[in-house]
Design brief:
Blueprint (H helix, E strand, L loop, with lengths): L5 E6 L4 E6 L7 E3 L2 H15 L2 E5 L5 E6 L10
Parallel strand pairs: 1-4
Antiparallel strand pairs: 1-2, 2-3, 4-5
């Protein structure tokens, strides 16, 4: 299984929210709230050790979470 980042994106002008694997054209799932979509995307990202990007209504990235081998403390 490839490590694919998950995106929470507005659907139908923000009336619904979708989860999309990075690089995919089709949505993995559609949800009534952004929180429901985030929960689903988070489960996938934890399983794949990848990241979740959450877009706001405007499409701009408003949050990003990593669920992989994120070194702490960061190097550098």
């Amino acid at each position: 299984m490839s490590k694919k980042n998950q995106w929470v994106v507005p659907v139908d002008g923000g009336k619904q929210w979708g989860v999309r694997g990075e690089g995919n054209e089709r949505l993995t799932s559609i949800h009534n709230t952004q929180q429901e979509a985030f929960k689903h995307a988070r489960e996938i990202a934890i399983n794949q050790k990848s990241e979740v990007f959450i877009q706001g209504q405007s499409g701009q990235i408003r949050e990003r979470n990593t669920y992989g081998n994120d070194p702490f403390p960061p190097k550098g």
